[in-house]
Design goal:
heterodimer, A: mainly beta, six-stranded mixed sheet, 11 strands, B: mainly beta, seven-stranded mixed sheet, four-stranded antiparallel sheet, globular
Chain lengths: 112, 116
């Protein structure tokens, strides 16, 4: 029940295309859903986060779409750039829980 | 320049040795965490600490130990009891929000540990 399932494992997109990464969860107590971006050899950095009271949040080219009834959320990267090539992790946390539960990660490659 | 520092960046260990990974933060964050990252897997929590002199086991604590003697420091010791320690280790911290919640975690640059 604590798992967050992330797909796809890897994704290749042409420059200018849309990258879409999906996550699904079971624990209805989750109320905080962040996405992290990680470049090789570096620590993850928070990209964008959403709470279940909104269905979408946009920051620049990055958008989180959230479907509470389906218990799914996704990251959309518009106009994908080679510099976006990285590993992306979704995560979730419930209320006052002390830890994040991470998805398994998606390795994104944006071709020039 | 605020942030989280981890040292060393690369660490090599012989079998049977204990090694200690350093994590320091100057963000004045209350909570600190240690994660292990293996290829193709998400981050798995080893230990976390919300206050000085207190820490809790995460999902994969066996073979690891920690201490939290100072708010800004949370070292991780990988003991010889950890059978497969080769991995990328990440330290993170977060601030305690009103209501006792902890949300955004800030990560350090990581330490890559290799057992020879």
């Amino acid at each position: 029940q604590q798992q967050v399932k992330q797909s796809p494992q890897s994704l290749i997109v042409q420059k200018g295309g849309i990258s879409i990464i999906n996550c699904a969860y079971e624990n209805t107590a989750f109320d905080y859903f962040p996405w992290y971006q990680q470049f090789p050899g570096k620590g993850p950095a928070l990209l964008i986060a959403i709470r279940p009271d909104v269905s979408e949040k946009k920051e620049g080219r990055f958008t989180i779409s959230f479907n509470k009834s389906a218990k799914q959320f996704s990251l959309h990267i518009m106009d994908s750039q080679p510099g976006d090539s990285a590993t992306y992790f979704c995560a979730a946390k419930a209320g006052s829980a002390r830890q994040l539960t991470f998805g398994s990660g998606t390795q994104l490659t944006v071709l020039p | 320049d605020g942030g989280i520092t981890q040292s060393p960046k690369y660490l090599f260990r012989k079998e049977g040795q204990n090694v200690t990974l350093s994590c320091e933060q100057n963000l004045n964050h209350d909570a600190m965490y240690w994660y292990r990252q293996d290829p193709g897997q998400g981050l798995r929590l080893i230990y976390y600490s919300q206050i000085v002199n207190d820490f809790q086991k995460g999902d994969i604590a066996e073979g690891y130990s920690v201490s939290r003697e100072k708010k800004e420091s949370f070292p991780l010791t990988v003991t010889s009891a950890q059978k497969n320690p080769t991995a990328f280790y990440l330290c993170a911290s977060s601030i305690r929000l009103a209501g006792g919640h902890y949300n955004e975690q800030f990560f350090g640059p990581g330490t890559r540990l290799t057992v020879l």
